[in-house]
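Progress report, Aim 2. The chain analyzed during this reporting quarter is listed below.
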Amino acid sequence: MFGLFGKKSGSSALRKHAERAGNKRAQALDRWEAIQALAAAGTAEAVEALLVRFTFYVDPTITDQEEKDAAFEGVLRSGDAALGPVTAFLRKAESISWPLKILDRLASAEEVTSKLLDMLSGMDTEYERDPQRKIQVLSALEERTDPRIVEAVTRFLEDSNETVRFTAVGALLAQAEAESAREAIVECLCNEESVRVRNRILQGFIERGWDFADRVDEVRPKLPPGYALDKKGVPRGP
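Predicted structure tokens for the chain:
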């Protein structure tokens, strides 16, 4: 451990620990010791190495969870030095759950939401083979409240992927400012073929006590079985 800081021998030791911590085929004890050493180093380079541990799974499950928990705590201990590497990892990781969990401990809610919105701004609504990252970002935004979310998410009501549209509806309806997207949500309902998406929209309107007012004639044919509109255009569910 003495050689981890600064000198050439330290750089060599750090690389060695990084290789072991990021190798799913390494002995569990060697990987564990490497994680502990990287956690003690506290540098941005050590954080980058620890983050690799979140990209693979090992058996048994308890070992996998213990190692990831140790890597998580090690990254947190690095404080501000971890912000850059974790943000970069958030942008490229297949799953954003761990980097998001870390950022929620290192930065303010507003800062984390800003990072998610920045990621979303680089995504489009056209077809893509694997929209999972987009879905993950929208799901994360559904769990947060921020005045900026409605404007950023509304365009995804027209996404080519049904699950993206479903998740976008949830993210919008979770916001205090959802009223500003109300017309866009109604338009989505009128054009939507997916029963699942239409159900989510209707449940959101029921929960908020919203009506469809002058769009009743367009909305009524899109109602799934069990739903109806009263005279004022207020939806009633099963």
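Residues 1 and 37 are 7 Å apart (CA to CA). The two ends are 64 Å apart (CA to CA). These observations will guide the mutagenesis work planned for the next reporting period.
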